[in-house]
TrEMBL record:
Mg(2+) binds at D20, D22, D227, Y239, D241, T244. SUPFAM superfamilies: HAD-like. Homodimer. It catalyses: alpha-D-mannose 1-phosphate = D-mannose 6-phosphate. NCBIfam families: HAD-SF-IIB. GO terms for biological process: GDP-mannose biosynthetic process; mannose metabolic process; protein N-linked glycosylation. This is Phosphomannomutase. GO terms for molecular function: metal ion binding; phosphomannomutase activity. Belongs to the eukaryotic PMM family. Pfam families: PMM (PF03332).
Length: 265
């Protein structure tokens, strides 16, 4: 591993480049290239660099660390699950979770409501795992996540005609309006529930924490590179955020091209 100047001694010490992982640093669902790794190493001599992935750290370690190098040593900052999990120079930063945020009592109330609601739903097929409990969110599925591919396709079609998820979302938004939750439909059979603001902008909280530390660095220029920058994409909020300079990329080659131009690499 090459040596890097301490963060406070980089030529552009108040600048950080943050990168989405899938489709931006790596091809979709594939590993990072040697060329990208070399470019990251060169950029790291000029400013701070960080990842911002939506998936968990295991996935990031696979794609960016190729399961051979500890990814937290390759970037100054690594953010997984939009920043609910973070590392700075290999050290883990304070983490957050959906259950920590909502609390057991309020979660129980919501889980009970969801299970009652689904119990009363008259839909052609029900399977299992109606609530999937994840670190940063819950995922709710009226048919259940154990549905087979055929059952998923059938539910999607039925849902389109009958608005099962649409109506459930309407009722839940009203019932839990006081909690400040985002309800997001994606995929064929389910929807996600997570606190407002727990998109990729969440990771910016860690950078703001840095500025408050003794001798901490204030990042006045935050570049963000992402391929899902359009509305509904998981880079949209951070790409549009006034605290960042958003760069829309088509693929990893485009990321490299833009970096070479921007930083004269
Ligand atoms: Mg992406």
């Amino acid at each position: 591993m090459a040596d890097y100047p301490p963060l406070s001694e980089r030529p552009l010490k108040n600048t950080i480049c943050l990168f989405d992982v899938d489709g931006t640093l790596t091809p979709a669902r594939a590993d990072i290239s040697d060329e990208m790794l070399e470019l990251m190493a060169a950029l790291r001599k000029k400013c701070a660099i960080g990842t911002v992935g939506g998936s968990n750290m295991v996935k990031q370690q696979e794609q960016v660390g190729r399961n051979t190098i500890d990814v937290t040593t390759m970037f100054d900052f690594c953010f997984a699950e939009n920043g609910l999990k973070g590392w700075k120079l290999g050290q883990e930063l304070p983490s957050n979770s959906f259950i920590k945020w909502i609390g057991e009592d309020q979660y129980k109330e919501m889980a009970n409501f969801v299970l009652h609601y689904i119990a009363d739903l008259d839909i052609p097929v029900k399977r299992g795992t109606f609530i999937e409990f994840r670190n940063g969110m819950i995922n709710i599925s009226p048919v259940g996540r154990n549905a087979s591919n055929q059952e998923r396709n059938d539910f999607e079609k039925y849902d389109l005609e009958n608005g099962v998820r649409k109506e459930m979302l309407r009722v839940m938004r009203e019932r839990f309006a006081h909690l400040g939750l985002t309800f997001s439909v994606g995929g064929q059979i389910s929807f996600d529930v997570f606190p407002n603001g727990w998109d990729k902008t969440y990771c910016l909280r860690h950078l703001e924490d840095e500025a408050r530390k003794p001798d901490g660095i204030t990042y006045t220029t935050i570049h963000f590179f992402g391929d899902k920058y359009f509305e509904g994409g998981n880079d949209y909020e951070i790409y549009e955020d006034p605290r960042t300079i958003g760069h829309a990329v088509k693929n990893p080659d485009d990321t490299m091209k833009q970096l070479r131009e921007l930083f004269d690499l």
